[in-house]
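Researcher: Structure prediction, please.
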Amino acid sequence: MHPMMKPALRRAWRDRQSVQFGVTPAHAVTLGPVDTATGALMELLDGTRGLPLLREEARAMGLPDGRAEALVNRLTAAGLLDDPTAGGPAADALRRRTTAHDRLRPDLAALSVIHPEPGGAAGRVAARRAIRVQVRGAGRVGATIASTLSAAGVGRVEVLDGGYTEPADVAPGGLPAEAVGTRRDAAARRLVRRTAPDRPPRAAEAKEPAVSEPGLSLVVVAPRDGLAAYAPPPAEAEEWITTGTPHLYAGVVEATGVVGPLVLPGCTACAGCMEQGRAEHDPGRPRLLAQWRSGRRRTVTACDIALATAVAGMAACHALSFLDGEAPTSTGARWEVSLPQLSWRSELVAPHLDCACSAAGNTERGHTPPVGSIHETMTG
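Model: Predicted structure follows.
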């Protein structure tokens, strides 16, 4: 181990005997008592020294035997230490890809704050390279989600959409102005390649050479028509329910942005659950949905560029959290935000007993996925 104080956390002495690591209450830790000599030893934890050399440095400072190990153990337990050599073979491979590693340093720093174990951040970012995600939609929201996931190190980001790029599809983080008039799917592929930290992994680099392409870890449903994200047609999700493919809805409709629910088939509420549940509370809703979905009246998409960017960013955050093995708050819930107040609000989406997805039965029996198993379900 080559102990290193996590560089993402700012360090300051709260008083003469206690040090605060971090600024924000969400991740700040205060450690004490810490004497001056131990504080000086702490300054040497920069990842360039192993424990044997740290012991020598501690003796040279006049510290008693065992002080170096005690300090390292104490800081590790507090989640304040990283190890630039940890994270496994995939993390080692990431470090050798110097350009990609430098691009992803801010992402690594962020994950090091969230995950206390040394090497946890490097291991998770490196694992993203083998993940395959599909984004359905290449409009202002979908294309920006795709480029963000690609830039965050997700190795395979596919974007599905039809037709040709229109001026209204252009967004700062999405399709560029020069893509207008070209096929949306081709423009999205170029966008994903351009924003990736480096080239996607070749099939020969996969752990299982017999499998040319990994299974889908997640589908992000971000249609250009935000109605299909706000009130998603259950039929479109039948294949994902059948194959057990996690999927997340995101979009903007009539100046209202939505993120979620993240559907874990058989465990959390799906599009069918949403539709049946809302129909029970509003008997007129099925008739309204049929008219809204008919497409008889052409409408101008009310998708404010700033709102679309905010929704895309939040959706990408939820997607990455899930891909890294966490359970984001969109799991079985929907987040909404509307102009002009811009106050995010969440609504739980309950599984429906009459829905064919069977999530209600599993929930009643307590069969919900533990946080640690989501990553296994998604990548395995």
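Model: Residues 204-211, 365-380 have pLDDT under 50 and may be disordered.
Researcher: Thanks, that helps.
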